[in-house]
Amino acid sequence: VVSGTLCLMFFVPMGWHFVKNINLKFAIEWKQDAHTKDVMRRIRDAHQENPQNAPAVSISNTWVFEPAINYYRDLYEMDYLNPADRLGVNESTEYIYCSAEERGKLSPKNPYHVVSEYEDTQTVLLKK
User: How many whole angstroms from its chain centre is CA 11?
Assistant: First the structure.
């Protein structure tokens, strides 16, 4: 009886914690990167709409997005997209993938429009 009670005292809270925090979209430790796959799909789809006239494009981003951007660039064979780097947001590129906070630091005269905004991660994809 005592061991059953101890097991319940241990497993019920653990089960509750698991159910409360179950999430199939992102890992809590790396939440900001949850939408990079969608970002890359959007860039790929935009290029596929007009592939003959589309020159090589660039994306600027913060360092946290660089590994995933380059992974999906290789996975989707996006040779027309220059590799991402860790140099930060650069307002001379065709795309910017950044946090909402970084978006607020962009020049007020920037020619970018929002392609997609992700409320849960506070990130945004911008296109020139």
Answer: 35
- Residue 2 and residue 8: Cα distance in Å, rounded? 10
Determine the distance from the C-alpha atom of residue 18 to the mean position of all C-alpha atoms in its chain, rounded to a whole number: 25
**Strand pairing category for 113-118 and 123-127:** antiparallel
- Per-residue pLDDT in tens (0 to 9) along the chain, 128 residues: 678 888 888 889 888 888 887 776 666 666 778 899 999 999 999 998 877 766 789 999 989 999 999 999 999 999 999 999 999 999 999 999 999 999 999 988 889 999 999 998 999 999 99
Query: Of 23, 38, 29, which Cα lies nearest the Cα of 68?
Result: 38
SS3 for 60?
A: strand
pTM of the model: 0.78
Distance CA 106, CA 15 (A): 44
Contact between 128 and 93 (Cβ < 8 Å): yes
Residues in the chain, total: 128
